[in-house]
Amino acid sequence: MALWEAGVPGGIYPPVPTFFTRDEELDVVTLRRHIRRLADSGIAGYVLMGSNGEAVHLTEDERLQVLEETRDVLDGLRKQMPLIVGCGAQSTRQTIELCLQAAWHGADFVLILPPAYYPGRMDERTLHNHYRAVADASPVPVLIYNMPNSAAGINLKADFICSLAQHPNIVGVKDSAGDVAKLMQIVAQVSSDFRVFAGSADVILPALIGGAVGAVAALANVFPQAVCRVQTLVEQGLLEEARLLQGRLIPANTAVTTRFGVAGLKMALEHTAGYGGLPRQPLLPLTAPEQHSLLEIITTVPAEV
């Protein structure tokens, strides 16, 4: 953890898919291939077991194997890149247990989605107690994960996130609600060592201008150089170039997130990287017309940036 004492490094983090064989077994060969492919692309680190990682489809043993295999690849490459691991669960007790396991097996940070099985009871008092208990117990720093689409519509408010930011072991937020105004409000109220990340590649430019330090972006799995380039251009002050590139990424980002989801992300990888595979059921692969539509969209992304 000494490497990350200054907080979560800014930059682009792909939420890594979990790959499966055709009989739905864990495909560690493809996972390792993907981690190696991204290692020199300009990304800042990796997010494992997030929404795009199909965390809800994995057994406890599979979760640990994904983390161990990823850490082993990076150690072999001698890459010092942070691993952020999704550990949100439906009880505080289970969430803490996942944090302990992740830390033991090589996680640098944990990403916590709010519990949402009983959404009517998840008021701010309940969620505040949950996050503080997790942060108190976690051996590694905690990032809040706000994603209403994966949490029964629960959308953490800016003031709530800012209140949690006062906990010494809560060090950042990934906000996937797409509300740049809220990101700016959070940045204005928290200390500089609390790291704010956008949750999608379609808002990198406005989020960075508003004070975010990077993004956790599914599209970075498919086009890592292009997604990272948006942030580089912003940091260089080349806002017009950043605006044009950002605009070209939006249709592809929509395709692999809200429109086609995990199956679309994996199919996009099949077309661009030669691997990807299928999601685990109940998710189904794209139909032939959907594949055709996806291919038309992703071919508009510039191959070189």
Automatic annotation (TrEMBL):
Record: active site: 145, 174
Classification via PANTHER family: 4-HYDROXY-2-OXOGLUTARATE ALDOLASE, MITOCHONDRIAL, DIHYDRODIPICOLINATE SYNTHASE
InterPro entries per the UniProt record, alphabetical: Aldolase_TIM, DapA-like
Pfam families assigned to the protein according to its UniProt record, in alphabetical order: DHDPS
Organism: Dictyobacter arantiisoli
UniProt GO MF annotations: 4-hydroxy-tetrahydrodipicolinate synthase activity
Family affiliation: Belongs to the DapA family.
Residues reported to bind pyruvate: 216
Protein name: Dihydrodipicolinate synthase family protein
Keyword entries, A-Z: Lyase
SUPFAM superfamilies for the chain: Aldolase
Domain of life: Bacteria
